[in-house]
């Protein structure tokens, strides 16, 4: 933990209303200001106690406080440094270690995730039993989406018409295995806008899940592999359609100590930069756009998705109340802190329902699973789609 970064906090409290856990519990030590106070105590010699670790674990890492802070406190860096220290020094209880072992030996590895897909229908039915065994196991069962079939991506998707650019595309782990239709839509949209899309083999997890949980060694290993794959592919731009992945990949230079040989842009960010050429067909829907935290707060990408959606004829974009409050997904948070995540998911679902939208648009697979689960729990009939799927439908002239 960097003392200079800690000392940037002047304890003004502007972060408090934006913090999801403070909004839930109203506890000072479960706010960014309170956690920074605990960080300061540790730097001054206080060991990490189970209580301190609990407050750090309860943080979603949503970065809403970074956006709100008038003093420019880099809480994002502080919480990542702190989580590395927690993993090094704090001894977790056996049940908690077992759950974390399952999560981090499963989700960053696409081939292992693939083996789970045929059993999704069974795990959903077993959710009550699994919850009694451990709440995290129950959360895994209830969050898992139904995957109808796998879509194997080609190595290259050629531009439609005149080629304007060549880009790489991250397939990802959770996105690739649980939402293959999103990757297919992303590649089609880029191709229809004049891009050759290079999708190199050998991809896996970019390291985001590990970075956000303090698993420094695993994060670096996965990041190095991702850099190697795309540098070997010879692309100078990599387009990412998962907010958490894009946020982490943009910080590869800091994580690995050197700049990768390519830049990273979110899909909406890249399309806004490229400029539209393909014709948009009408989509007569009312949609609510959800700001994924690692897109809005960590990457600062807010206007681009709204502009892209707003350019579709007959599509009405509605804002969600409390849009800056996290939905409770936050990487693996909804697996490791299931009750807090469930409360935040229900809060987000209630906010979505007030918009009267027919479709919720999200730009992150974790958010999609989290909000869809909360909407089902609340009995709401609303579909969730990725920004890429909406653009793809408009460009192809088909209904969602």
Topology:
Blueprint (H helix, E strand, L loop, with lengths): L2 H5 L12 H6 L6 H12 L6 H8 L6 H5 L6 H15 L4 H11 L5 H7 L3 H6 L1 H7 L1 H9 L12 E2 L7 E5 L4 H5 L1 H13 L2 E4 L9 H4 L4 H18 L3 E4 L2 H7 L2 H5 L6 E4 H8 L11 E4 L3 H4 L6 H8 L5 E3 L14 H4 L1 H16 L5 E4 L2 H13 L5 E4 H10 L4
Parallel strand pairs: 2-3, 2-4, 4-5, 6-7, 6-8, 8-9
Antiparallel strand pairs: 1-3
Helix pairs in contact: 10-11, 13-24, 18-20, 22-23
Report on the architecture of this protein.
This is Glycolate oxidase iron-sulfur subunit. Its cofactor is [4Fe-4S] cluster. This protein has 24 helices and 9 strands. It is an alpha/beta fold and 400 residues long. The strands form 2 sheets. It has a 5-stranded mixed sheet with strand order 1-3-2-4-5. The protein has a 4-stranded parallel sheet with strand order 7-6-8-9, sandwiched between helices. Strand 8, helix 23 and strand 9 form a beta-alpha-beta unit.
Short descriptors:
globular, four-stranded parallel beta sheet, alpha/beta, repeat, Fumarate Reductase Iron-sulfur Protein, Chain B, domain 2, Rossmann fold, 52% helix
> Which fold name is given in CATH as the topology of the largest domain?
Rossmann fold
Corresponding CATH architecture of the largest domain = 3-Layer(aba) Sandwich
From the alpha carbons, calculate the radius of gyration and give it in angstroms.
20 Å
Strand order of the largest sheet: 1-3-2-4-5
CATH class of the largest domain: Alpha Beta
Average predicted local confidence, pLDDT: 92
């Amino acid at each position: 933990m960097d003392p200079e970064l800690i000392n940037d906090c002047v304890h003004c409290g502007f972060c408090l209303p934006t913090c999801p856990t403070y909004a839930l519990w109203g506890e000072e030590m479960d706010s960014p200001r309170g956690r920074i106070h605990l960080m300061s105590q540790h730097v001054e010699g206080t060991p990490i106690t189970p209580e301190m670790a609990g407050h750090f674990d309860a943080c979603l890492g949503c970065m809403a406080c970074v956006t709100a802070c008038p003093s420019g406190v880099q809480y994002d860096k502080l919480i990542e440094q702190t989580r590395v220290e927690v993993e090094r020094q704090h001894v977790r209880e056996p049940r908690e270690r077992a759950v974390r072992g399952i999560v981090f030996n499963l989700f960053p590895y696409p081939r292992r995730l693939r083996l789970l897909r045929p059993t999704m229908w069974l795990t959903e039915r077993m959710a009550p039993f699994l919850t009694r065994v451990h709440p995290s196991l129950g959360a895994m069962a209830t969050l898992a989406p139904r995957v109808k079939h796998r879509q194997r991506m080609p190595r290259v998707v050629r531009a439609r018409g005149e080629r304007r650019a060549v880009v790489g595309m991250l397939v990802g782990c959770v996105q690739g295995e649980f939402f293959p239709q999103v990757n297919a839509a992303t590649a089609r949209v880029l191709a229809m806008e004049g891009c050759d899309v290079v999708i190199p083999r050998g991809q896996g997890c970019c390291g985001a899940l590990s970075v956000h949980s303090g698993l420094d060694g695993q994060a670096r290993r996965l990041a190095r592999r991702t850099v190697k794959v795309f540098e070997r592919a010879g692309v100078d731009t990599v387009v990412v359609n998962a907010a958490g992945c894009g946020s982490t990949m943009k910080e590869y230079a800091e994580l690995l100590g050197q700049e990768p040989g390519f830049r990273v842009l979110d899909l909406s960010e890249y399309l806004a930069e490229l400029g539209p050429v393909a014709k948009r067909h009408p989509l007569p829907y009312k949609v609510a756009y959800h700001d994924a935290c690692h897109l809005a707060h960590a990457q600062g990408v807010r206007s681009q998705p709204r502009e892209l959606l707003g350019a579709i004829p007959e599509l009405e974009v509605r804002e969600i109340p409390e849009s800056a409050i996290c939905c409770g997904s936050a990487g693996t948070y909804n697996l490791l802190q299931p009750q807090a995540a469930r409360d935040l998911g229900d809060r987000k679902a209630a906010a979505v329902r007030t918009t009267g939208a027919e479709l919720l648009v999200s730009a992150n697979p974790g958010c999609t699973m989290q909000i869809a689960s909360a909407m089902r729990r609340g009995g709401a009939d609303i579909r969730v789609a990725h920004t890429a799927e909406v653009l793809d439908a408009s460009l192809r002239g088909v209904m969602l």
